[in-house]
């Protein structure tokens, strides 16, 4: 069975199911019956685009005339009109046929004078007059005219409102499922349908395409302004009262081979300053977003090109010059909109943090003053008024004590937090909020990272194994224990693990491959998630933790990283403490590079003694070996080594050194002074 969509003369639509082997006359009868057409009318069928009349006999098969899922337009007309238009298929009816001669038959003349004029019917047709739909105006006084005009205006408004409401009801569409939406969208964009759904989707698609084009054009404006690929001409066709030009013609590079012209209003510097200040004062966060160069290039081309004209295309510099007292650091910050769930989680986290700090303050006050009588336990809602004043008054000693207790047993805290007594919905939401805060709150991350870099730390756990206490009470590093330490590298995470000889015998170093999971036998259950021991020994545990969060997990990765990329990942560049963090980070990177150079040189030449002797000859880095001729390197190595060396050994040193320089470009800048 085939489905054929029918469109009647009065907008009625329906789907007719018919056998493709049936006669077209049967199809016409079913269409007339389903559309409820009158028996006195004939049907004219049209199909295709533009619709063309189907000129076939009634005995033709349906499958030879239409196709499955085709759309047929059905028109009705009288017998005479249908004959004038073309071939139509009559509908089978049982009405009595009237002879056409009897319809217009006049009385034959019986005698007397006869004329050649045709007989005139008894009823005279009146000519159709042009009708104008609307309301008239009655002549009278001006007061009557005003009152009548007011009444008519109100009536017109009521009609417009009623028409608009009716239009909204009529144009409503019903999309029942996802498949219905997909089918309607495909039919709309391919031109296979012209119903209300198709019109809606075509309009929505057109708006989306226009919006995307505006975004693309805004990007082209910004790129042209920053790349100085634009030309501005003041038009003389329109002038201000002072004689200056009022419009600009901008020609900028839209694509690689296309230039676009725009005509915008010319704004002077004082006008631009007033506009920017007004947006900052009354626009709120939305207005500040619109002042970003990309958004400005989209929403206000006249302001964008006027600033670009004055400041050579750099809109950000122009904004800073127009309003120098404003902090414009937000221009380079990407906007992150928090969802309702994330905002709720942040509020819960703030409440939980302040409640926890108030409890810590209570415990600290009790330990310092044991004679003070403890009060009754207060409920959490009762602390809401006191949290605002207690958050900023935490005792430093109490804060250190809380941090020390948290560092003693992380595993115990995790088990305690997940216990049945304390794992309330509030604490679970607070734990989930930490993930949201780490993604959305850049300022909190910056504060924590700055605190980690500025706070001086003691040695890590690995370093503490190598410390002894001197007579004056100061901690000193024991050289014997440092020499006996063993460094092993995990085959899974490539991190370094510094072990004492006693610990090395318990972690099965002979196994191949070896992973950090064997460290559980000596009490280190963190596995590969722990920070690298060499990085922790160099930077401290807290800084090593922050470096691991930005994918700097080993000392070699720390040496290969750049200061700019690490700063961008760790802190906000506009933070006041960013410069201090940058200086310390540069120092740590230089120390990591120096340690890596020492290890690589020991691997290249085969011993630390020979490395130290080569350093005295200004050949202590791979870049020195690459830049120095082979015979001079051989001469320096022979003078400092008891064994006779060949030129082939020196060539192998230089080959491996060149490979290291190619893999790590920063090595080219490290030379022995």
UniProtKB/TrEMBL annotation:
Bias (Basic and acidic residues): 383-405
Enzyme class: hydrolase
The protein's name: ubiquitinyl hydrolase 1
Chemical reaction(s) catalysed: Thiol-dependent hydrolysis of ester, thioester, amide, peptide and isopeptide bonds formed by the C-terminal Gly of ubiquitin (a 76-residue protein attached to proteins as an intracellular targeting signal)
Region feature (Disordered): 101-164, 353-405
Source lineage: Eukaryota, Sar, Stramenopiles, Oomycota, Peronosporomycetes
Keyword DNA-binding: no
Location of the OTU1 Ubl domain: 4-54
Natural source organism: Peronospora matthiolae
């Amino acid at each position: 069975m085939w489905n054929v969509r029918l469109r009647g003369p009065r907008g009625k639509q329906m789907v007719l199911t018919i056998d493709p082997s049936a006669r077209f006359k049967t199809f016409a009868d079913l269409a007339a019956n389903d559309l409820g057409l009158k028996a006195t009318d004939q049907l004219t069928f049209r199909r295709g685009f533009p619709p063309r009349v189907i000129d076939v006999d009634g005995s033709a098969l349906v499958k030879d005339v239409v196709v499955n899922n085709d759309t047929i337009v059905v028109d009705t007309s009288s017998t005479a009109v249908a004959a004038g238009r073309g071939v139509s298929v009559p509908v089978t009816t049982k009405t009595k046929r009237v002879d056409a001669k009897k319809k217009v038959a006049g009385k034959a003349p019986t005698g007397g004078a006869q004329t050649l004029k045709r007989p005139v019917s008894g009823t005279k047709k009146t000519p159709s007059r042009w009708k104008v739909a609307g309301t008239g105006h009655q002549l009278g006084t001006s007061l009557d005219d005003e009152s009548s005009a007011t009444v008519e205006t109100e009536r017109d408004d009521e009609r417009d409102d009623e028409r608009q409401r009716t239009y909204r009801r009529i144009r409503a569409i019903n999309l029942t499922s996802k498949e219905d939406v997909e089918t309607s969208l495909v039919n709309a964009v391919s031109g296979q349908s012209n119903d209300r759904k198709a019109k809606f989707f075509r309009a929505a698609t057109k708006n989306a395409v226009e919006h995307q084009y505006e975004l693309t054009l805004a990007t082209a404006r910004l790129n042209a302004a920053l790349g100085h690929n634009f030309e501005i001409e003041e038009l003389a066709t329109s002038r201000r009262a002072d004689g200056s030009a009022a419009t600009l013609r901008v020609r900028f590079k839209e694509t690689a081979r296309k230039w676009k012209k725009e005509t915008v209003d010319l704004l002077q510097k004082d006008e631009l300053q007033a506009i920017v200040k007004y947006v900052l004062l009354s626009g709120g966060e939305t207005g500040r977003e619109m002042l970003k160069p990309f958004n400005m290039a989209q929403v206000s081309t006249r302001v964008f090109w006027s600033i670009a004209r004055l400041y050579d295309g750099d809109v950000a510099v122009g904004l800073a010059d127009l309003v120098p007292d404003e902090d414009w650091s937000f221009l380079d910050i990407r906007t992150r909109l928090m969802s309702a769930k994330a905002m709720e989680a942040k509020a819960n986290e703030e409440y939980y943090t302040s409640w926890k700090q108030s409890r810590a303050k209570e415990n600290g006050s009790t330990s310092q003053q044991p004679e003070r009588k403890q009060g009754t336990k207060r409920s959490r809602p009762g602390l809401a008024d006191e949290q605002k004043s207690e958050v900023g008054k935490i005792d430093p000693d109490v804060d250190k004590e809380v941090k020390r207790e948290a560092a003693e047993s992380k595993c115990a805290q995790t088990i305690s937090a997940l216990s049945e007594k304390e794992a309330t919905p509030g604490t679970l939401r607070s734990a989930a909020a930490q993930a949201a805060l780490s993604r959305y709150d850049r300022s909190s991350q910056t504060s924590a990272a700055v605190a980690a870099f500025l706070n001086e730390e003691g040695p890590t756990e690995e370093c503490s194994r190598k410390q002894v206490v001197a007579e004056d009470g100061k901690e000193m590093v024991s050289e014997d224990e440092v020499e006996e330490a063993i460094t092993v590298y995990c085959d899974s995470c490539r991190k370094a693990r510094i072990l004492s000889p006693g610990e090395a015998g318990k972690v099965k170093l002979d196994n191949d491959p070896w992973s950090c999971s064997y460290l559980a036998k000596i009490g280190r259950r963190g596995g590969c998630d722990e920070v690298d021991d060499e990085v922790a020994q160099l930077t401290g545990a807290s800084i090593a933790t922050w470096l691991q969060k930005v994918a700097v997990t080993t000392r070699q990765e720390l040496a290969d990283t750049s200061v700019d990329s690490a700063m961008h990942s760790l802190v906000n560049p506009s933070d006041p403490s960013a410069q201090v963090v940058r200086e310390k980070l540069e120092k740590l990177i230089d120390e990591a590079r120096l340690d890596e150079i020492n290890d690589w040189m020991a691997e290249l030449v085969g011993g630390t003694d020979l490395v130290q002797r080569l350093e005295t000859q200004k050949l202590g880095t791979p870049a020195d070996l690459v830049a120095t001729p082979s015979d001079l390197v051989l001469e320096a190595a022979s003078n400092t080594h008891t064994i006779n060396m060949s030129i082939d050994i020196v060539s192998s040193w230089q080959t491996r050194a060149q490979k290291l320089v190619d893999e790590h470009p920063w090595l080219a800048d490290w030379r022995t002074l």
